[in-house]
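In this section we walk through a basic example: taking a raw amino acid sequence and producing a predicted 3D structure, encoded as discrete structure tokens. The instruction is simple. Fold the sequence below.
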Amino acid sequence: MAPRRVLLDPVETPGICHAPNLTNESADMASRILQANRANHIFTTWEKEMGSNRLSKASLHNHIVYHTLSLYALGASPEMILHQTKRNTTYQLVPPKFPDEATLRAMTEPEKLKTFIGKEEHFLDFCEFFEQEIERYGYEDVLQKYLVGDNEIARDIFPRIYHGYVHGIMHIGLGLEFKQAPILAEGLAEAAVHHDWWYTAYIDACAAKAHDPNTKKTSLIECFEKALLDEKITTCSSYDYMKQYEAPSEEFPDGRWFVRREPYRDGVVGLVKDELSTCAAGWQVRPEDDLELATAELINISIYIAAAAQRPPHEPRYDFFLIHGSNACLWHSVYLAEASMSRSQKAKLIETTGHMLLFLWAGVGSPPPQIDWLLTHPRKQPNCGWEGIYERANKHEDDGHMIKLIRALKNGEDVCKPYEGREEFKMKQDWFLQAAHAAMDSSSEQPMRYVQHFDIIRLVGFQEAWEKVPIDAREEVPVEARGKVPMGAQDTARTRPMEVDVTG
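The resulting token sequence is shown next.
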């Protein structure tokens, strides 16, 4: 892994899931874009614009890295890669500060380093620091010292890879997948500056229960089935979280979305941390387990939960938060193959991500599975295979969420193939391509505006999320295609959750 500069190569660094037609020209374009992106902040919003203080933080992320590497991997031309980048550079932010020698010297001392963790203004300081550490010790030792090892700093940073809707685990995964030290350093820096304490509180609760000898081990899907029967869990969130606006003012003449209440902090952790962590703790992964099997199961269920979150008779759609879980699981194939990590460390990653899938699912309203509705979706391009799907994804004008999903779906098909027929694997082989068709068929021809999606929706467990989604045009919908709503999942019980004091 060469330090300092991004240098992609279609032979040496194609990625684990890629098109057959990668070119040197696209690799060069992507490399130059990724190197230039270092001039931007990792977030696209300031904390003061999204909430009244650090406890109200809901930063939105810079997705240039995710989008560019996904385009490169799926065979986009250099012209297409540049076009998509230009669309998404208009709203990036200049970092609040640039690296300075005094800060970098301080970071080499563990006690002083701890004082910078959780402060987003030090993102570029951490980028430079981790690049220097990789250059000095090698990326393998850096992962051990700052992420997966058994020391105070690594134990602090590890849960932060899941903060901000699991972005850090994806960014670090990209660095490892494409063997790029600058991208790996960015991912570690992104994790280090996140400070969404409620994620860590939930992760710690799940880990404690999962390692209690009295907790029964179950499949991952059984954890969801158990949670779906708990009305307190299925009613912990609310669509009101998506309707937080402030009236126009002199500072913000058009008004603004202002996060005073957050579905995962105030809903999931504030109301049902104990109940949900009890359900999630059945997902247990030990070093002596078959880690290939556990990884495949994790990937399978992450995709199933997102693909099955439909609401007949509306056209199929994917949920913004759920696909973050599906997309993140793509890189578990990378972590599994990473020789520098021990079996215990890999098991911890697989287990924690499984717990986080339930966290993401509960926050969007605990949607019951309606996979039959997606499977009976009539394809707009019925003869289109994976290469055609890649081409459609490359052209889709968003910030990279859709194309990441397509890669995750194809990787899921490949990884899960040896386990076809196992009861705990809910996604079947011929479903992955259908899920990809449903994704691309749902994609809007209207280009994404700033951070506003016109295809992916948020909080699919609530009817309000579907109000602008057209009714499906199928001439006849068989009863069996409508799916079944299990007990405890009815919308009628969903009410606005109580206010929660999160100042402690």
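Looking at the output, two observations stand out. The longest strand covers residues 245-246. The chain has a mean pLDDT of 88. In the next section we compare this with other chains.
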